Amino acid sequence: MFRDVFVRYRHKEKLKNKNYKLLERFYASLYLIRRTEEEIIRVYPTDKIKSPVHLSIGQEAVSAGVCAALNGRDVVFGTYRGHAMYLARGGSLKMMIAELYGKAAGCAGGRGGSMHLIDIGNMVMGTSAIVGTTIPISAGYAYGLKYRGSDSAVVSFFGDGAVDEGAFHEAMNFAALKKLPMLFVCENNLYAIHSHHLSRHHSDNICERAAVYGMPAQRIGDDIFSIYNTAKRLLKGVRSGRGPAFIECITCRWKEHVGPGDDFYLGYREKKEVRQAMKRDQLLEVRRLLGASAAGKIEKKIDGEIREAFEFAERSPFPAQEELYANVFKE
Amino acid sequence: MKRVLSYSEAIREATEQEMSRDPSVIVMGMGVDDPKAILGTTKGLAGRFGHERVFDTPLSEDGMTGLAIGAAMSGLRPIHVHIRMDFVLLALNQLINMASKLCYMYAGKISVPVVIRCIIGKSWGQGPQHSQSFYPLFMNIPGLKIAAPSTPYDAKGCLISAIRDNNPVIFVEHRLLYYQKGYCPRGPFTMDFGKARILSRGRDITLVGISHMAVECLRAKRYLQEKGIEAEVIDPVTLSPLDMERIEKSVIKTRKLIVVDNAWIPCGAGAEIISRIMENNSGGDFIFKRMGFAFTPCPTTPALEGSFYPNAKMIAAQAYKMLYPKAGQWKPKANLKIEEVEFNGPF
To answer: How far does B207 lie from chain A, in Å, by closest CA?
Structure first.
């Protein structure tokens, strides 16, 4: 299933991108997300992270590819499976890990946790645990950008579960109507928790749904080069005032819906599905193109950053009790 | 001569003045730029400020509320108008799951300056789905402010404050109030949220009326005067935050309180106000009564609708019963002169 999507772009897209700097960027982004989440998995049994984690492992290329195609002031909104997007857009790793630990130095002062990451300085405008809610909010932000004549764009990341929500259609209609500068990115990992996309949808037509709103819509696989190239091309149209665009990336969540482990014991999907996805692992793919020595340098640097971030989270203080009542309202 | 405006004119004036002062203020909602212009409250705004700042929306309450939140995050100050508060139910996900908690959830890094204007309908057969006022539901949610002014003066001041507030404000407007006239200054002014207004002083019983019920309480006061009873009438003006100090002070004086909700009674503003008085005055010798909608959906036919809503005569009869429990029932006769209430101010 969906195999055509994965072969279509393969070689030609890659060759176009034998761009060393870009390869390094892709690798740094993919490696940072993968290793950070592996470290979360390692720490999780200690109960120091008291926040449900929805890991992005296996889906990193979507965030890494799209975010590499963004300009400096472009903002992103995402979902509770948001570590990848947050890190790919440049969100502070230290503040993210401190947030997972519930510490005062966390990106949301410990009030948000894994599902509510934010780093406004780095254009990460938030993630939500309520499926689909950030899609119309992204459109609203895009309305504000357009109103002020900004040439920035908004990227709204969401999963295949969100397309079931009315808000998805409400936001797409309005974005198309007002030609808002935004890119919709559907990370279709085929499952909403354990419910398969085709057990919820009349047909395999998520991309076509976007197309009926008159916006360019393209389905691709989770090949980082095709994701990057497609995002880059569509964003050009978005920025030129032609209105929103849509990408559906078929991808695979390797881990369980929530938590640090595997979930094959549940029997809702075949191990084969995930094994096939692992064969497409973009981290290994990009590493191969980059070469072991260049990759090794990046790995060393990032390993250090991750170690530092976890140490920082460990030794940071928890918020003081009076923080409970702070910021219910903005002054 | 004092300057007199209707409630709806006061809302329009507040919006126009804020829009000309601050280019980040926008108005959105179904019908805001149509010929009827939300009962005149958005009249002329699209012409003056353009369709980027005053725009009609699709029938997508949830999505458009998200849009308002996102626009607010980007630096705009949207006023989202709902011609019926009943429609706001479709937006509860965005209002409660997002708008009310983004500031807290992100440790104050995000603010959501949006005003949700909600109009409550009554009579002319508004019926079960055009008459509901859900402010008690919102009173249960931290992170939301709620205003439900009853006078043109308060409508203007509160709306300007709501627009300038950096938090989501649910702004409740009763349609029957739209034609009420009263003193209203020409220039822009703000009002502190959490300040109740004593609409009329009295020593015998305290009547707290919410939104349009403040008017019914003023009428009830006049009926009670026939019996030599002086009621103190208080309009809380904002329900979140709630000015308990002023209400409590009045109740300590009169020992008797009726809260007339413009909504159903269970878990309503009446329950909240009375509980807080009890908590702060243990052993206090008070008599309380809650009044509000009959606990049924609102019937359309006027034959039943009359009994669904509390009115001035019912409130007066209830007050009399509380003051003279042994005197037997008294019900005032309808008097058109008494029913005419105009707000004179200045307050």
So the answer is: 30
Q: Is B61 a catalytic residue?
A: yes
- SS3 state at A77: strand
Average pLDDT of span B59-82? 98
Q: How far is CA B193 from CA A35, B134, B144, B149, B157, in A?
A: 50, 19, 12, 11, 10
Return the number of other C-beta atoms located less than 10 Å from residue B22's C-beta.
12
Does the model's ipTM exceed the 0.90 cut?
yes
Residues in chain B: 347
Per-residue pLDDT reduced to its tens digit, B39-68: 999 999 999 999 999 999 999 999 999 999
Which domains are present in chain B? 4-183 (3.40.50.970), 197-339 (3.40.50.920)
Note the pTM of the prediction, 2 decimals. 0.95
What domains lie within chain A, and their CATH numbers?
19-252+260-314 (3.40.50.970)
pLDDT of residue B38: 95
Residue numbers in chain A where pLDDT is lower than 50: 11-12, 15
For A33, residues 6+ apart whose C-beta sits below 8 A from its C-beta are A56, A57, A60, A63, A64, A83, A84, A87, A88
Out of A144, A169, A173, closest to residue B71 by CB? A144
Residue A215 C-alpha, separation from nearest chain B C-alpha, in angstroms = 18
Q: Choose, from B80, B82, B130, B212, the residue flagged as catalytic.
A: B130
Decide if B14 contacts B184 (C-beta within 8 A).
no
